[in-house]
Description:
By secondary structure, the protein is an alpha/beta fold. The chain contains nine helices and seven strands, in the order βαβααβαβαβαβαβαα.
Amino acid sequence: MKTKKQPSIIAFSTQKGGVGKSTFTALIASILHYRMGYNVAVFDCDFPQYSLVQMRERDLKTVMQNEVLKKMAHKQFTTINKKAYPVFQSKTDTVLEELEAYVGNSEVTPDVVFLDLPGTVNSAGILNTLANVHYIFSPIMADRVVLESTLSFTDVLTNVLMKEKHTEIKSIQLFWNQVDGREKTSLYKNYEKVIKDLGLRLMETSIKDSKRFRKEGEIVAKTVFRSTLLPANPKLMTLCRLDQLMDEFLKIVKL
Length: 255
């Protein structure tokens, strides 16, 4: 992609739905844009549900109906002096052109662009789109079906796409999500050996199982976790180790 400035293109991507792709996209994008001073844009290509487009609509309603969150949002946007990051609805086979047009026409070039992609390699244009992503992060869970699907998907990306000369991929990282502290560690050790034997990369940080990941903003809530308008509460981030994942994420993408 030829642009005036090349943003880092990042995707939380797997071949399975329901493992947290859209959630992590929103969490990391909001922390970068609202708390850390980066300029972010999100392209939601996850047809037909378009989870992030819908999340933005819900977040706007929630903030307007909740006085605590309304004051929090007003203070935030006054302090950082920039708008909410855009969430565009797109498709996997057209997103690269739309992304290039957006970057070319933007007064402020985004530092990071997140792509929220469908959970299947059968989607039109997805392999070509993934080949143009710089960093891919794949959440995995200790579930045989989820893990086998994700590992085969990541194996294709690592050993097919990355070995071709035309790919832009710099790194593909797996990370454990929804880790239940009561599960035997031997289960994870066995899976981690398989991951290592395949030559795939696994992040050190694992995310604890948390109801917060499946909880939308509430009209009575006084804190925020998953939102496209406000960054996650630091205490809630620490509880599930999202703060540690963020630190490791930043070291990998080198923003």
